[in-house]
Amino acid sequence: MSKQVVLERIQSALKRHTISHQDMPYENMIIDTKDDLLEEYKHFQELNRAEVVDSSPENLLTEIENALAAFESQKLLYATDLPCDLEQLEGCVKIPYNKPVEEFREEIFHIDTAILKATCGVANLGMVGVVSSPASPRLTSLITLKCIILLEKSSIVRNLAQGLESLKRVGIPQDVKMRDEDLGRCLPTNMLLIGGPSRTADIELQTVFGVHGPMAVRVILY
Questions:
Q1: Within 13 Å of residue 150, how many CA atoms lie on the same side as its CB?
Q2: Residue 194 near residue 167 (C-beta atoms within 8 A)
Q3: Helices then strands (H, E): number in the chain?
Q4: CA-CA distance, 92 to 98, in Å (whole number)?
Q5: Smaller CB count within 10 Å for the chain: N or C?
Q6: Rounded to an integer, what distance in angstroms lies between the CA atom of residue 46 and that of residue 51?
Q7: Rounded distance, CA 214 to CA 222, Å?
Q8: Cβ atoms < 10 Å from Cβ of 95
């Protein structure tokens, strides 16, 4: 059965049997530890084993250089929607992620560091939210052993519900009001919540970093 036939049957069924919708209030079950949103985010992000640097837009390039030096980066894969121009950076080969992975498969697996911009930060979980796009493909945060994430301080929200709302509304102007069913049709194809370095543990509870993604993550706040 084709996808189109399935969708037509679903639409036909919805016309005959409407589904009532009720907004459920969100109750934050996690106790906030700090009144200051930025301090809470930094506290939990560091507990998630990510390095956090509190910077500013003016010092963003300097902090990126510091991160590359600390990581001893040789090659840098970068998303093309960053809030700064990396042309001024020296000391490593800069590779834009502007083509399908099939076109540089042999090269991409030998890149040690990646850099991308986060959509939001979730304070009480110490996570960043990332939306994949042609300018920032999904593999940007997964393919290298070291990762630099740029996070605008004003995009930090209190909890997961607010974070998901920020991710869902990427590309939609803030003053545009949409119903939930309409918003659902505009959802990004891929959304990631990143808590820090990738880790896993075997049956003996021995934690290993870098198995499913980067083994080192630095978040630069600006």
A1: 24
A2: no
A3: 6, 12
A4: 18
A5: N
A6: 6
A7: 22
A8: 15
How many CA atoms lie within 13 Å of 210's alpha carbon, on the beta-carbon side?
9
Task: Please give the backbone phi and psi of residue 58, each rounded to the nearest 5 degrees, phi first.
Answer: -70, -30
Q: Compute φ and ψ for 217, nearest 5 degrees.
A: -130, 130
Query: Of the candidates 214, 181, 202, 195, which has an alpha carbon nearest to the alpha carbon of residue 115?
Result: 214
**Is there a contact between 141 and 114 (Cβ–Cβ < 8 Å)?**
yes
What are the per-10-residue average pLDDT scores of the chain (222 residues)?
82 80 67 83 96 97 97 97 93 95 92 98 96 95 97 96 90 64 70 92 78 93 98
> From the centroid of its chain, how far is CA 36?
22
State residue 43 phi and psi, 5-degree precision.
-60, -50
Phi-psi region of 146 (alpha: psi -120 to 50; beta: other; left: phi over 0): beta
Neighbouring residues of 35: CB distance < 8 A, sequence distance ≥ 6: none
